[in-house]
């Protein structure tokens, strides 16, 4: 599985994340309300976001998300924890500009990534903070099922693991 393909559908395109994308993405991420339900609520701060962005670049699996209709950058996402033996991959670290919330764009993004991943894996994982109710509802709408509760060692915060199988994919 190529963990950083360029993919597109009628609404979004994902392309490999580059260092030069920082300013565009920080302009989106600097919106404090974007992170209000997230376990790491201070990601709107430049020094905190910079760490997240650098980790995304170093992962080699992160994307810039583009609105196909306007050409504008609307957020970022990535694949991670690919396990060839268990035939699973995680999708996460996703954030999109708030003006795209409650629109078909997030679903189009997930459709794009999930349909691609299911060509190679049997299970897709989503890790969601216990206070991130919007994301919990979003992954449940995809057909993902709560499969685990865990304590994130880095943040000390409670997270949930949701699993999506081909059979549950809506």
Report on the structure:
- Residues 12-167 form the N-acetyltransferase domain.
- InterPro entries: Acyl_CoA_acyltransferase (IPR016181), GNAT_dom (IPR000182).
- With 170 residues, this protein is α+β, with helices and mostly antiparallel strands.
- The protein has a domain at 7-122: 3-Layer(aba) Sandwich (Aminopeptidase), CATH 3.40.630.30.
- Helices cover 26% and strands 32% of the residues.
- It has helices spanning 22-29, 46-59, 105-117, 133-142; strands at 7-8, 12-16, 62-67, 73-83, 88-96, 123-129, 145-151, 158-165.
- It has an 8-stranded mixed β-sheet with strand order 1-2-3-4-5-6-8-7, with helices on both faces.
- It is globular and about 40 Å long.
Q: Predict the CATH topology of the domain at 7-122.
A: Aminopeptidase
The strand order across the widest sheet is: 1-2-3-4-5-6-8-7
Helical residue percent band: 25-40%
Q: Low-confidence spans: pLDDT under 50, at least 5 residues?
A: none
User: Mind telling me the CATH class of the domain at 7-122?
Assistant: Alpha Beta
Number of strands: 8
How far apart, in Å, are the first and last alpha carbons? Answer: 22 Å
**Average pLDDT for all residues:** 95
Structural class: alpha+beta
The CATH architecture of the domain at 7-122: 3-Layer(aba) Sandwich
Radius of gyration: 15 Å
Largest sheet: 8 strands, mixed
The CATH superfamily of the domain at 7-122 bears the name Gcn5-related N-acetyltransferase (GNAT)
Number of helices: 4
Q: Sketch the topology as an H/E string, one letter per element.
A: EEHHEEEHEHEE
The portion of residues forming beta strands comes to: 25-35%
Shape: globular
């Amino acid at each position: 599985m190529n963990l950083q393909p360029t993919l597109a559908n009628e609404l979004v395109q994902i392309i490999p994340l580059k260092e030069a994308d920082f300013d565009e993405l920080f302009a989106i991420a600097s919106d404090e309300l974007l992170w209000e339900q997230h376990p790491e609520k201070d990601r709107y701060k430049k020094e905190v976001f910079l760490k997240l962005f650098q980790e995304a670049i170093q992962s080699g699996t992160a994307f810039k998300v583009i609105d196909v209709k306007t050409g504008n950058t609307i957020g970022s996402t990535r694949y991670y924890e690919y396990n060839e033996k268990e035939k699973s991959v995680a999708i996460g670290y996703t954030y999109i500009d708030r003006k795209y919330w409650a629109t078909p764009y997030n679903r189009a993004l997930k459709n794009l990534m999930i349909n691609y991943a299911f060509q190679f894996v049997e299970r897709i994982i989503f890790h969601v903070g216990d206070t991130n109710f919007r994301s919990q509802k979003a992954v449940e709408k995809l057909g993902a099922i709560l499969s685990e509760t865990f304590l994130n060692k880095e943040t000390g915060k409670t997270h949930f693991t949701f699993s999506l199988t081909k059979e549950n994919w809506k």
